[in-house]
Structures are given as structure tokens and as C-alpha cells.
Amino acid sequence: MVTSCKKELVDTNQNPNATQNPQPDYLLTAAIKNTADTYWGVSNNMGAGLLIVQHWAKIQYTDPDRYIFTNTSFQDLWSIGYSKSIVNLNKIISLADAQANPNYKGVALVLRSWVFTLLTDQYGNVPYKQAINIDQYLTPAYDTQRDVYFALLDDLKAAQADLDPNGKAIAGDVVYTNNISAWKKFANSLRLRIALRIADREPAKAQQVLADIQAEGSGYISSNAGMAQMVYLDSPNQNPISNLFDTRDDYRISKTIVDKLFELNDPRLPIYASPTADATPQTYVGIPNGLLVGDASNLGLSKTSKPGAYFRAPHAPAVIMSYAEVLFDQAEAVARGFISGDAAGLYNQAVTASLNQYGITDNTVLNNYLAQASVKYDASNYKKSIGNQKWIALFGEGLEAFAEWRRLDYPQLQPAVAGTLNGKIPVRFIYPGTEQSLNGTSYTAAVANQGPDVLTTKLWFDVN
């Protein structure tokens, strides 16, 4: 009787809206879409990363721009990262093993490594080892940031071994349309990103990673056409930024980046910023970050610039990794002595790739821009040259720009006008409040190891 009841309950407790036999292609599309929406979306990109690095600013509801966050402010990246992205990718890995299709496993490992990089970059110590076996560990322990980065480098090396352009085909890939060779280049590019993330702490390890990449031979993302990105479609699958501006009007471009683009006569200004609705002497008007509500609204919605139409278009891509970033990373690797090459030449290629990314291809414009003293590569301070131009090139990529600003310490930003951190700028996200209530023991141990769970606690990779 007991056995019969158990079987009946199992048969009865089925979700009618969920498939009982998940398919890797559908899971892959869902994992990419969920992560891209979060990475490019409102809560932790527009409402945090882009504000902190002063790409965007708030003209209404300015609390986030003043560093007033709650323990739910950063919940989306955490909850979606773990409960949707990583869960789906883990399932793809198990299905790939069952179906003997290593290419699904390799792609899922690359994407999972990207998700974990986003998590540890922002929060620091995060669950990794036990989080990839969440069925066994409902309250997973946190791993140190160093251990997470090292584990991800191992995962990406394993992914390279799994990915075979001559192997079984995959489906559901909305980044590279199932092109395994492109995934191999992206995997190496992500390894390069993480190697530089640890470079100030673990230079020998970083250099070994780059030697392994060289020996592997697939190379890096090598053109704007090969960058990792997800191109959005029409509503309801439009770009999250487009979706926000359909109903709200509380964001403007930051005065910090507008001033810098004016100073450099940067041809990306009319792409990054929209002309003001009412005529103004400068056409493009940014607003200072972190104003009080009244001071911000007094500037006028029609006399300040929204982010550019390019970024507010329904089909605008969520850029996961650009060709320009990869070139900047290679320039830095040369400057650090990790690999051989021409740092200045790679830097110039990176700036050019960023301009080309937005359709700026006129050689006279490109050469005049690179010839400016304030743009030329400074071998005596590579972090300044690369940091300033990378910050411009990463416009829109709030989480990655936030990580690189902390790592390179350029540009040298001023805190929000009416900021609440005693003249400091946030250097991490605080953990979601749900971790204290649902995973309290692990949370407490992580905070004891890393430092107070506040916006100003520096993470392991952020050494200066």
C-alpha cells in the first residue's frame, strides 16, 4: 500500500508546464537568454554597474546613483545566475555526457564559467564547488575568489578539450549559431580575461595560462564579426534597455563620459549619447552622477541626453565580449611581460576595433584620433592608457566595466555628488538578503573570510 501511494504521488506531482525530458538545445537557448537579459538588464547593469562606472546617470529616483542600495538591490544577478543559468548549464553538461556529445558540454562549460566570473567579480567569495552539485548541497559553502578563478581556468581548459569543430553538431546556440570554432576562440578569450583578473595577485599562474592558450592554438576572438554577443529580436524578445525606455525615462548619459568624449573629440559621442530633445549649446548634455532628486530633475528631461539610440534599439546586441576587449587584454599581457608582441600596436588595434564596432571606419578619422597625445599609448603607465580607453570601449557593459575599473584603477573617477559612502565609490556588490536567511552558516563564514558585507570591502583581485 505504501509503495503504491508513493508511485501515485510521483505520477501525480508532475508540472504540466514543464518537459519531463529536457532537450539540450532548448536549455542552451534559455541559459544564454536569461544570462544576457540579466547582464544587460535593469537591476545590476543599468541600476548599478553603469552608474558606478559613470557611463550612465539617474535623473529621477536617484538613490542608486548615490550608492543607496538594499539587500535586494543585487539579487537578480545572484538568483538568476544560480537558479536559471547555472542550473540549466549543469543539466546540459549531464545530458551531453549521456548523449555522448562533448560539444554541448564544452559550450556549457564556457558559458557556466562566464556566469561564475560575473558572480565572483561582483560579490567576491561565492559558492562554486558545491553549487555545481546543488542537488546534493542545498546550502552550498562559499569558495574564495582565488579558488573560484582557478577552478574556472581549469573548466575552460577542459572545455577546449571537449570542443571539436569536427564533432557532433549542437543546436540552440544564439551567440555563434552553433559554430564550434568560434566557441573555442571565445573560450580562450575568457581564459585571457580571467588570467588578467588574477595577474596582480598570481602573475606566474596568469603567465602559465597564456602559455597554455598559445600551445592550444585556437587563438582568440579575432574580428568584430567574431565577438561574443546575443542579438535581440522584436518585443517581447527585445533588448532590455529598449524595453525599459518604452515605459520609463529616468536614465541619462553621465556627464563624466560626455566630458571625456568631448575632450578627446571622440567620434563615438553621437553613438553613445542622444541629442537633447530641446536645442542646447552642446547638443549632448550629460548629468553628474549622484545628484539629489530635486537637483537632478531641475536639469530638465528635455535638456539632457539619453543614452544613444543605438543602445535603445530593440535589436541592439548584448555584448558578452568584444574584439576590442580581447585586443586590449593582449596589449596588457605584452606590457606585463606575459607574452611577446607590440603592446602599442595591439592597443591601437583595440581602439580602432572599438571605433569600427560602431561603424566608424574612415581612416582619416581613425588616424587623427589615435594621433592625439591624450590617446597615444603610454608605455610608462599602461594601466592608464588601457584603463581609460577600455572604459570608453566597454560603454554599456556595466558589470565588465566595473570589474576593469577596479582592477586597472583608471579612469580616476570622482565619487557621486551626493554619495552616501563618505567620499568613496562602491567596489563590490553586497550579498542578497536571502543568503543570510536561507544559507546563513555559509554566508557568515564567507563574510568572516572576506570582510564586512558592505559596498566598500575590496575584493581579492582588487589590490590597489
Spatial strand arrangement across the major sheet: 1-3
The major sheet is characterized as:
2 strands, antiparallel
Provide the helix percentage: 40-55%
Question: H/E element string?
Answer: HHHEHHHHHEHEHHHHEHHHHHHH
Mean pLDDT: 94
> What do we call the CATH topology?
Serine Threonine Protein Phosphatase 5, Tetratricopeptide repeat
Number of strands: 4
Alpha-beta classification: mainly alpha
Number of structural domains: 1
Shape: globular
Region (Disordered): 1-23
Biased composition (Basic and acidic residues): 1-10
Biased composition (Low complexity): 12-23
Protein name: Starch-binding associating with outer membrane
Features:
464 residues; Serine Threonine Protein Phosphatase 5, Tetratricopeptide repeat; globular; 52% helix; mainly alpha; two-stranded antiparallel sheet
Please provide a written account of the structure.
It comes from Mucilaginibacter polytrichastri. This is Starch-binding associating with outer membrane. It holds the Pfam family SusD-like_2. The radius of gyration is 22 Å and the shape is globular. The chain has a single domain, classed as Serine Threonine Protein Phosphatase 5, Tetratricopeptide repeat (Alpha Horseshoe), CATH 1.25.40. It is mostly helical and 464 residues long. It is 52% helix and 3% strand. The N terminus is likely disordered. It has 20 helices and 4 strands. A two-stranded antiparallel ribbon has the order 1-3. Helix 5 packs antiparallel against helix 6 and helix 15 runs parallel beside helix 17.
